[in-house]
Amino acid sequence: MPLKVKLTLGAVALVVVSLIGLVSGNLLLAQRLSDRQERAQAELALELVSGALADAVIVYDLATIDDVLRAIVAEPSVRLAAVWAADGTLLSRQAADAGAPSETGTAPSSDEGRHFVSSRNTLLAEQPLNAAGMKIGTVRIEMDRDWISTSLRNSRMFNLLFSAGIATVMAVAAYIMAARLGRQVALLRDGAARVAAGDTGFRIPARGNDEISEATRSFNAMSAALEAERRKLDAQLRSDHLTGASNRLGLQEFLHRETAAGRGVHLLHVDLDHFKQVNDVHGHPAGDAILKNVVFRLDVLAIPVGGLVARAGGDEFVLALPESSDGQEPSRIASDAIRDLRRPVPWEGRSLFVGASVGMSRVPPGATDKQIEDAIVAADIALYASKAGGRGRLTVFDSTMRTRVTDKAKIEEEIREGLARGEFVPYLQPQVSVADLAPVGFEVLVRWQHPRRGLLSPGEFIDVIGDGDLLHDIDWTVRANALDWLVQALETWPQARGIKLGLNLTERQLQTTDTADRLLDLIWCGGVPFENIAIEILESVVLDAEIGATRANLMAFHKAGCVLELDDFGTGNAALRTLVTVPVGRIKLDKSLVQGIAASPEQRHILKALTGMASSLDVETLAEGVETEADLRQLGSLGIDAVQGFLCGQAMSMEDASVWLSQRLGDGSQRLEALPAE
């Protein structure tokens, strides 16, 4: 049963019970008071008559006595009145109705006091008249009980009707109060249900100051607090907690909202260049400062055109720009973003530098969920093309890129299958001493023995997989096989104990904390002396040599006895001072500095300066790309320690390397014989 009905019925029942009690009590009380009221009226009449007649009786003033008695019988409740003298003489008798039967004619009572005699219809009241302590007469009054009863009944009826009226008013008031209370409670109940269902914006009007109104205001306060908390949670659900930018969910909702309104949206997928290096060198607080600053700068570009900035994860962001009549607008904003993100970020008194690459795609008006997701993927594909093309640039997505991605996925699957089948093998390119052309080492390269396409060089698949997990899996497989070959070579030719096996490590591998431990364990377990290993690193890695993981790995290799070899020296940005700060044991001069040296005095001057510097730092030099004896003789005159190139031998299989090594560790007659081209 509804609360409103319960309250109403309870109030009405209370009123009815109260009314019944009131009526019953009134009836019982009226019955008890009826006799008392009759006697009281009779006593009052006797007192009035006695007071008015005392003097008249003493002097027998009959006219006055008659006037007084006529006045008293004029009262509706008095039927008859009579006065006797002290000797029993009737002085006067007056009746309201002369024909009505009466007992007034009888002699007065001899009682000295007041007394009453009741009959069915009358009440006879009598008392003596006294003056100066002496009885001078008797007064008798005969009251009409019917009239008195009627009067009392009328009074009682009035009281009952009045009580019934009050009860009715109370019942109506109780109903109104119950109805109001029921409505308020029902509103609270319905409001609680709506809030529980998620409608935290629901409010209930509260106008009074009673307890229900206070409860209503408390409910509204609770609902407002829940609404604020819901909004806070919604904001957190749709935004990145670090930068305040939208997250992927916020981006998708924005795209759905804009495209549903009939607007196309351009997506700019922004990836920070060199962010990891800054983060590793200066720590996460510096990285966080950069990310917040990037969002601020992108907001400046996106908000004026009604756009949105979302953090896609890590150091990647997406600018969603609603389409405008200016077709060049997104390209201009992309260029501005690339320019602005090159500007230094101030942090704790220093300047931090990053860059940005951008990929762009478009979401059509009225796009479906799949079209939106495809556009996000397309912007990511375009971004990948930007980074592959040299970073710091904008690439707009086209359909051919998706084909390349599909091809990339196919090649990656073939590579996984090739790894499982052992198709990736080491190829070794020999290095010889300039002084006596004796073998001094081999650089380990990789080849893919593809079952359909034949032998593939790294250039035909490395660019596809990048510096990712697949490349690392290939590298570890190739290194293990090359170390096994070196163990056999050292056992076969004791005179080859000075040969070094050059192992290339990528930038990412050196930034992985356990790389040195893992590779040193592989070398140790393979039975290869550490001094027979050269760790080849690029100049870009030397630039990162202050990064915690990179430096720790390099120092671990150096302390173990491995030679740190700086590859492609002369083509990058490594400062010469890094040869002091990093324990480099040998530099490999890039072939661009070596080829044609016999005909270029300028190149000879450069190489002479480099070799002099290296010699003063006790760093060995090795020239790459040596293809002619003329270049070899020039390099020897400049003090180059060793060479590598077609003149010495191309990259070869482990079996061919064993043959080559066997020939050159003999009488030396074939030391300058180059192997046929591949």
Q: What's the topology here?
A:
Elements: H1 3-58, H2 62-73, E1 78-85, E2 90-95, E3 115-118, E4 122-131, E5 134-144, H3 145-196, H4 211-237, H5 248-260, E6 265-273, H6 275-282, H7 284-302, E7 308-313, E8 316-322, H8 329-340, E9 345-347, E10 350-352, E11 355-363, H9 369-388, E12 394-396, H10 399-421, E13 424-433, E14 439-450, E15 454-456, H11 462-465, H12 469-492, E16 500-504, H13 507-510, H14 515-526, E17 533-538, H15 539-543, H16 548-560, E18 563-569, H17 578-581, E19 586-589, H18 591-594, H19 601-616, E20 620-624, H20 629-637, E21 642-644, H21 654-664
Parallel strand pairs: 11-12, 14-16, 16-17, 17-18, 18-19, 19-20, 20-21
Antiparallel strand pairs: 1-2, 1-5, 3-4, 4-5, 6-8, 6-11, 7-8, 9-10, 13-14, 13-21, 14-15
